[in-house]
């Protein structure tokens, strides 16, 4: 394996990420951050982090002169995995240095594991947090926290490929490793151009939502941060009460619309730009995605219509269809797209509503979107395979090809989908068991462990019980947080990109 070339490219990625970090720090310092006291130190924390990141990246770049510049599939998988693991460490460094330079020793960021957890949650667009008192954080930290999600939305590796056209086949293999899934068809013949098109579409939707939220009454800062989190389906907010702290209905509607858009395969936007409307409507995954959203929203709304709605900021509304529709639809869209924004404390809702919300956490959004979960297309294929096997049970002589739309499901895709779903379920079980083991007896209940596991694996954010809509993950032990970080990155990269590193043959020369 060409380890030296992997380290060299990883060093280059550290340099790129450090430059982005520095740009965010300058923007926040010049435009928004007018704070005093310990909060005046964020810029220096970011400057120090960027310098350290650039230095580390430079050393890795120059000290790892490879004998060959070829990057096979194994090297691409390793580089992709390390990009997220190392990227989270570098992205969490400003949080920790802020507490050191600002003497904020009692802050939760004074614990390195919390910084790593927050950064990993940001880059993987999970949205799980260890923080309380978010409003008191300096704007620089809040902007960087939102930016990590925006960068992770389409992937830091995809950004890396987009800005460095000289990567060639290296970029193609890295792109394929990160954007793994049933739909691997590129938008343009050149992988560098594909990455650029994706990011331009992503940027265009980001600008549109930011302007819309500003017109709806948010400040520019809140509009930017919430847009970054929405388009990345991340869920980090600038308030403890999340979107529940904003009363205007227009804000809720705008975020719902863009969460739905973020959960759509970005390749369809390319089709839209070229006027191929029929191809968009004929997309089986899109129709299934919208159908699941509509049915799940309807069930949730009906189940909570007779319930009092308790908001994330403590306000309470009497039972009624107005609030039920508003908060039921918002929560359903938020959790299926793995955004994780909250307006109401859904942990108080009836069993039926909570059961539906947990189920759609597993499903997630479309392949090729920023959403998490198993992905709608895999669920569709899995059900098609199951239906085919059911027919074979009573009609064994019938040979009928499995089709999704006009496309035939190949044996390879069929096997890969079943293996993926099985791996997802096994990881969910392993994560739940690990949390039960790592926490003291009586501190962890099964509901908390199970929903914490699935919400991190599906990159959703909030779960139920002790990790619910108005709770956080700070109370967990360091081993539990580390286990959840591994679930986040494994879910973000599609299970196999991380699990393959545990296979002994992966590391053999042949």
Polypeptide structure, described:
- The chain is mainly alpha-helical and 510 residues long.
- It folds into 3 domains: 3-262, no CATH class; 271-363, no CATH class; 376-507, Helix Hairpins (Orthogonal Bundle), CATH 1.10.287.
- Helix content is 62%, strand content 2%.
- It has 20 helices and 4 strands.
- The protein has helices at 3-31, 42-63, 73-101, 112-123, 139-154, 156-163, 169-178, 191-215, 220-231, 249-262, 267-273, 277-281, 284-304, 321-336, 351-363, 376-394, 411-438, 446-457, 478-493, 496-499, and strands at 309-310, 316-317, 403-404, 407-408.
- The strands form 2 sheets. It has a two-stranded antiparallel sheet. It has a two-stranded antiparallel sheet with strand order 3-4.
- A hairpin with a 2-residue loop joins strand 3 and strand 4.
- Helix 8 crosses helix 9.
- The longest helix is centred in the N-terminal third of the chain and has 29 residues, at 3-31.
- It is globular.
- The chain starts with a helix and ends in an 11-residue tail after the last helix.
- 51% of the residues are buried.
Which features would summarize this protein structure in a list?
510 residues; Helix Hairpins; 3 domains; two-stranded antiparallel ribbon; 4 strands; globular
Low-confidence stretches: 162-172, 177-181, 183-189
* Count of DSSP strands: 4
Oligomer: single chain
Structural class: mainly alpha
Give the number of helices.
Answer: 20
The major beta sheet can be summarized as: 2 strands, antiparallel
Secondary-structure element order, as H and E? HHHHHHHHHHHHHEEHHHEEHHHH
* Percentage of residues in strands: under 5%
Distance between the termini: 8 Å
Rg value = 22 Å
Query: What coarse outline follows from CA principal-axis ratios?
Result: globular
Q: Give the spatial strand order of the biggest sheet.
A: 1-2
Q: What count of structural domains?
A: 3
Mean pLDDT: 87
């Amino acid at each position: 394996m060409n380890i030296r070339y992997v380290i060299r490219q990883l060093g280059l990625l550290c340099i790129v990420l450090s430059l982005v970090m520095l740009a965010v720090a300058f923007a926040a310092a010049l435009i928004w951050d007018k704070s005093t006291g310990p909060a005046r130190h964020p810029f220096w924390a970011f400057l120090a982090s960027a310098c350290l990141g650039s230095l580390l990246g430079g050393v890795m770049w120059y000290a790892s002169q490879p004998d060959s510049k070829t990057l096979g599939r194994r090297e691409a998988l390793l580089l992709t995995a390390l990009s997220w693991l190392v990227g989270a460490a570098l992205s969490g460094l400003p949080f920790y240095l802020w507490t050191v330079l600002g003497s904020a020793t009692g802050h939760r960021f004074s614990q390195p594991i919390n910084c790593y957890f927050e950064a990993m949650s940001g880059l993987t667009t999970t949205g799980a947090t260890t923080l309380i008192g978010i409003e008191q954080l300096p704007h620089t930290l809040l902007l960087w926290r939102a930016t990590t999600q925006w960068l992770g939305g389409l992937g830091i590796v995809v950004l890396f490929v987009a800005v460095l056209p000289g990567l060639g086949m290296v970029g193609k293999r890295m792109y394929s490793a990160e954007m793994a899934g049933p739909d691997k068809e590129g938008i343009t013949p050149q992988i560098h151009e594909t990455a650029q098109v994706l990011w331009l579409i992503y940027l265009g939707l980001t600008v549109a939502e930011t302007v819309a939220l500003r017109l709806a009454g948010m400040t520019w800062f809140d509009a930017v941060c919430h847009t970054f989190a929405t388009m990345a389906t991340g869920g980090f907010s600038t308030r403890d009460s999340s979107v529940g702290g904003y009363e205007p209905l227009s804000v809720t509607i705008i975020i719902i619309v863009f969460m739905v858009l973020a959960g759509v395969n970005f390749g369809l936007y390319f089709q839209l730009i070229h006027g191929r409307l029929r191809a968009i409507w004929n997309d089986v995954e899109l129709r299934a995605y919208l159908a699941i959203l509509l049915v799940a929203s309807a069930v949730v709304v009906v189940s909570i219509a007779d319930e009092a709605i308790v908001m994330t900021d403590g306000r309470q509304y009497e039972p009624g269809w107005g609030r039920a529709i508003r908060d039921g639809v918002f929560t359903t869209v938020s959790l299926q797209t793995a955004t994780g924004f909250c307006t109401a404390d859904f942990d108080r809702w009836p069993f039926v509503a909570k059961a539906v919300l947990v189920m759609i956490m597993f499903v997630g959004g479309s392949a090729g979107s920023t959403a998490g979960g198993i992905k709608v297309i895999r669920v569709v294929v899995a059900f098609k395979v199951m239906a085919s096997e059911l027919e074979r049970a009573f009609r064994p002589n019938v040979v009928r090809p499995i089709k999704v739309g006009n496309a035939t499901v190949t044996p390879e895709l069929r096997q890969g989908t079943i293996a993926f779903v099985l791996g997802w379920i096994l990881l969910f079980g392993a994560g739940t068991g690990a949390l039960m083991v790592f926490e003291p007896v009586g501190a962890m209940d099964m509901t908390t462990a199970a929903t914490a596991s699935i919400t991190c694996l599906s990159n959703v954010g909030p779960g139920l019980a002790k990790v619910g809509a108005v709770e956080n993950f700070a109370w967990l032990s360091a081993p539990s947080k580390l286990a959840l970080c591994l679930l986040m990155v494994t879910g973000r990269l599609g299970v196999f990109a991380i699990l393959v590193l545990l296979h002994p043959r992966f590391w053999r020369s042949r």
